[in-house]
Prior knowledge:
The longest helix is centred in the middle third of the chain and has 12 residues. It is built from 4 helices and 6 strands, in the order αββαβαβββα.
Amino acid sequence: xxxxxxxxxAVLQLRVIVEADDFDAAxxxxxxxxxxxxxxxxxGDGNARVSILDAGRAxxxxxxxxxxxxxxxxxxxxxxxxxxxxxxxxxxxxGVTTRLEAAGxxxxxxxxxxxxxxxxxxLDAPAGxxxxxxxxxxxxxxxxxRAGFGTADSR
Length: 155
């Protein structure tokens, strides 16, 4: 896997852009309740506003339909609608889930241990997003030693 940042073709950042009808409520939820620090903010003509929040390391998870159904089932007990879901790794999934519910999110799936050894909850959050809050319960090296896990390079 090429992770050289001096490669001119390398992607340096993944940024997910969402439109929020209630901009202030969405910023308060993701910045203040979830704890994503504001990296930059801009205002423009016609009351145009944007807040860029730092979510740490980003990954793009590509799942086939069977995997999406399985994750929906594990996290919520039922199939969820199509679309993009954001997942945030945290160190205290139960505490963050409680805090986000108090800040206006609706819990779809309470925190539960998954077959892949993480503690996940699913919430409906501001800006029309469904989010997963997850806490890893074992390290990546431990996980990749179990059957069914690994990377394309390790298969």
